[in-house]
Amino acid sequence: xxxxxxxxxxxxxxxxxxxxxxxxxxxxxxxxxxxxxxxxxxxxxxxxxxxxxxxxxxxxxxxxxxxxxxxxxxxxxxxxxxxxxxxxxxxxxxxxxxxxxxxxxxxxxxxxxxxxxxxxxxxxxxxxxxxxxxxxxxxxxxxxxxxxxxxxxxxxxxxxxxxxxxxxxxxxxxxxxxxxxxxxxxxxxxxxxxxxxxxxxxxxxxxxxxxxxxxxxxxxxxxxxxxxxxxxxxxxxxxxxxxxxxxxxxxxxxxxxxxxxxxxxxxxxxxxxxxxxxxxxxxxxxxxx
Length: 289
Fold this sequence. Notes:
Blueprint: H1 5-22, H2 30-37, H3 41-52, H4 56-74, H5 80-86, H6 92-103, H7 107-112, H8 116-121, E1 137-142, E2 145-153, H9 159-173, E3 183-187, E4 200-206, E5 219-223, E6 226-234, H10 240-255, E7 265-268, E8 281-287
Antiparallel strand pairs: 1-6, 2-4, 2-5, 3-4, 3-7, 6-8, 7-8
């Protein structure tokens, strides 16, 4: 095997998969798994996804369902409810739904006559095929930036409600005017792999002075300075993950750089009400050590 840096990332993700398999009964937290991978928790979930084609939560569930399938097929004396609880489900009904959705057989059907060819298909993990994406990456020194921020915690589909509230604050106070201030978004995890109620995204606007307490919930904050890799994304915000995953999979392993323990963040250069969606420009910042 060559010393290609991509192989190093493969090894780190494989190490996580082995750790999950060997500690399947443990509370496999994001913090613990990102430590195993030697990645910042803010970036680990995305790197795992591009290398396995699935979220770490789904991988853990599949590992537990795999063990459950062995229990069903080869340990007839074990009750389904006990197998369900061991797999981390609160009820046999929830277990049955997940099992059926995964293997296209109910637990009882699988116990009676396992469809092993279909079963094997579920465990052929492959990297997610994004393909090579032309990428112009600039390394810059980002200055510590004072911002007003409004925290969104909840379903990603509702971030525009939070953005609207932040815009209303801007208009009411004039403290971070859209035309003369920069607008940032900070996603603390990947909305595609995070439970909706746990998804956090901060909308921020640069400010020159502290903001007073207000009824909008807008707070003072900073975006820390430091070295960053910057990728310019053109087009819909719904396709930002295309540029993000390409960065993690193609540029980062070959760069010799390491990610810093802070989320990637977005600078919205223009807005949907100003230009057509295809002409949107968003600079994506990846903090580096």
